[in-house]
Amino acid sequence: MAGEFKRLAGIAPWGRRLREYRAFFVLDEAALSRPVLDVGAGPSSFVAEVTAAGGRAVAADPLYTLANDAIAGRFEETVPLMRAAMQEARERFNWNTYGSATALEALRREALGLFLKDRARAQERYVAGALPALPFAEKQFGIALVSHLLFLYGDDLDFAFHIAAIKELARVAEEVRIFPLFNLDGRPSSHLPCVVKHLRAEGYACAEVRVHFEFQLGARTMLQVKR
Ligand SMILES: C[S@@+](CC[C@H](N)C(=O)[O-])C[C@H]1O[C@@H](n2cnc3c(N)ncnc32)[C@H](O)[C@@H]1O
């Protein structure tokens, strides 16, 4: 199947909220009490909301070479493409999770608004950087999160990229969590088994952990990696 989402130009600047991240990554208060890095954070409000709640969080994304206006512009360009893609692929999603495409879009706008406001206030929390080489020190973070980038964009990002990216994440954080593990076609990522096998052979501990969230039908696990 060609996959409607592949018609989106590149990797979509589409951001999620803290409560969604909590569900994707099974984040409890203990996890959020450590310094958190959100990689490929885009216009997500995770860092803004964690900071507002008293936590320590930093976001990294190549998008952050752009000013807020340009990021907002990219988001607006994405909206009609996302609407069309969601409509065409609607049977591949669990709509009980968000209610409707309209509600989902509203949530993405909320996240964008919180992100833009926080970045205007504290640019230092938003670092321009791209996997597989992050501008951070060894074990600078307790936990590194990657939402909707690795595995999901498995056609754009190959096996070697996944290995290099996950090793880099494990260099800068004690623990790495990645969600989802499905690709844009709504199927389990074909990279996952080989990536896990390769990382284990190099001494990394990998666990596929069940989460209490499902939007892409069947995508109910995240990957936890520790070195
Ligand atoms: C679909 S968005 C997900 C945003 C956010 N993580 C969320 O779930 O709400 C994917 C993000 O990955 C970023 N990205 C693309 N290539 C990247 C790379 N090599 N390293 C880090 N981020 C990257 C894009 O700029 C985009 O903001």
Descriptive terms for the model:
single chain, 37% helix, 7 helices, binds S-adenosylmethionine, Rossmann fold, alpha/beta, 7 strands, 227 residues, seven-stranded mixed sheet
Secondary-structure map:
Elements: H1 18-25, H2 29-32, E1 36-39, H3 46-52, E2 57-60, H4 68-88, H5 101-121, E3 126-127, E4 141-147, H6 159-172, E5 173-179, H7 192-201, E6 205-210, E7 221-226
Parallel strand pairs: 1-2, 1-4, 2-3, 4-5
Antiparallel strand pairs: 5-7, 6-7
Helix pairs in contact: 3-5, 4-5, 6-7
Walk me through the structure.
It is a single chain. This protein is an alpha/beta fold and 227 residues long. It is 37% helix and 16% strand. It has seven helices and seven strands, in the order ααβαβααββαβαββ. The chain has helices at 18-25, 29-32, 46-52, 68-88, 101-121, 159-172, 192-201, and strands spanning 36-39, 57-60, 126-127, 141-147, 173-179, 205-210, 221-226. Helix 3 packs across helix 5, helix 4 (68-88) runs antiparallel to helix 5 (101-121) and helix 6 (159-172) crosses helix 7 (192-201). S-adenosylmethionine is lined by residues 11-16, 39-42, 44, 61-63, 130-131, 147-149.
